[in-house]
Amino acid sequence: MHSENLRWETLGALKNSPKGKLKYSPDWLEKGEVKHRNELHPRPRLNTCSLTSCVRDTSPGLSEEGSFPVSPRQISSPVSIRAEEDEQKVTSSLLNVSSPPAMSVLSPRATQMAGCILMCEHKHKARAKAELSLRLEQQERLVATVSSCESEQLKRFEELMELKQRQEYQSMRDMMEKETQESLGRQEKMREEHRHRMKILNLRLREAEQQRLREAELERQRQVEGRERHRAINAIQEEVLQLNQLLQPRPSTQTDSALDHTPYITRGNQLCSQVSEVVPASADGQYPSVEDLNVAERALQEMRSLVRNLQDEVTQAVERKRKEQEEEEEEKKRHEELKAQQEEQQKNAARSAKEKARKQGLQTGADDSTLKWYNALQDSAARCAQAFDELSTAKDTQTKKLKMELQKAATTPVSQIANISGETPASSRIALKLFYFIFSLKNFNKCPSALVFNGKARQVYLYSTFRTQW
């Protein structure tokens, strides 16, 4: 056992040494790479029995490690051994050198060493085979992936080629039909000439020919009508697709969350599918029937009604939105007017407070608020005068009659109008003008220009009444 361990240690040292990098092969003797050694030390003659006995004579270390396979290259046949012996005899006779007795090449020690080397080689081969199998599996997976991608591309290419082939077949069929029609026309002309030349034919053949012509005419008429229906179905399909695009939500209507396009889009897609189911049936060489055309027309009418309903809903939504905006604007205006009236009431309260203060004591100058009120009153008077222009240019008889009565009342002497002695004509004139203004506002509330000064007129009327009584 100790000697066996030493042998394995020796083999490990040889493997790690630079000389151990050289690979041993038992085929060197067969290849003739050690021919010079054979010339110096010729191999003794061996027979098959001695060879098998040497191979079986293994050391205890090899029996413990296990048997190893012996390749056909390691055990040569008796014929090859005899041929080598003949060559050795020839070389020994040529050299004429007396060789000393040589030791046996296949001794137990050498056989054991060769077996250890072969075991190492088998281990390396097994490891290499495992790595090779792993690499082959990776390559196979890569090849499978690439083949799947290439097969998909091949399918797309085949589909494209089939489409081109169908288009070419369609164009060729149209050309053949055209040539067939032309040939039929030429045949018809030739047939007419033949009829003129063959007047001696009997009536039965003529009737058969006429019957055949009638059938051909009916077939041609059927084909013409079929083509017309085919064109009509294609036009209907195109219009249906265009109308289906109108059902899609536009950027202007996407902001309106109340309008839902989903049912319209779903129904539009169903109608497009219904029309497209009719088209392939007519594309297989058969012409569409009248029922197919009616189905396509009904689908078109329904699609048009869908588009019309959608447009009506969009219009209603826009109208609702516009009304909401107008209501918001009116609400804002009313809020502003209410705010202005409140401010005006506050100003009037401030003025009344100042008037009470002025009654209690003398005032040499006007306040800033009084001047502002005076300027505002002048502006109101200017706007009132502008409103009076509309009254003066009115064409209604009732309005003209009211205008004459007011003018008559304005030109009446002051002594007939004044009820308080000592009242000045100016105050009476102001009262008449204010009465004329307020009466016109009460009778012409529908006038937009008069509605604007309604609040101002009340203020002027209150001020004039207070001044007249005071």
From TrEMBL:
<feature type="region of interest" description="Disordered">
    <location>
        <begin position="318"/>
        <end position="364"/>
    </location>
</feature>
<dbReference type="GO" id="GO:0005737">
    <property type="term" value="C:cytoplasm"/>
</dbReference>
<dbReference type="GO" id="GO:0031369">
    <property type="term" value="F:translation initiation factor binding"/>
</dbReference>
<dbReference type="GO" id="GO:0000822">
    <property type="term" value="F:inositol hexakisphosphate binding"/>
</dbReference>
<feature type="compositionally biased region" description="Basic and acidic residues">
    <location>
        <begin position="318"/>
        <end position="346"/>
    </location>
</feature>
<dbReference type="GO" id="GO:0005543">
    <property type="term" value="F:phospholipid binding"/>
</dbReference>
<protein>
    <recommendedName>
        <fullName>GLE1-like protein</fullName>
    </recommendedName>
</protein>
<dbReference type="InterPro" id="IPR012476">
    <property type="entry name" value="GLE1"/>
</dbReference>
<dbReference type="GO" id="GO:0044614">
    <property type="term" value="C:nuclear pore cytoplasmic filaments"/>
</dbReference>
<dbReference type="GO" id="GO:0016973">
    <property type="term" value="P:poly(A)+ mRNA export from nucleus"/>
</dbReference>
